Amino acid sequence: MTMQVGEVSDEDDAPLSEINVVPLTDVMLVLLIIFIITVPVVLNTIPVTLPQVEFEPTTTKAENVNLSIRAPNGECEIYWEVTRVTSQELLDRGVAALREEIERQGGPANVTELPEVHIRGDVNTPYRCIGGAIFTMQRAGFTRVGFISEPVPGGG
Question: Nearest to residue 116, comparing CAs of 135, 137, 132?
Answer without folding.
Answer: 137
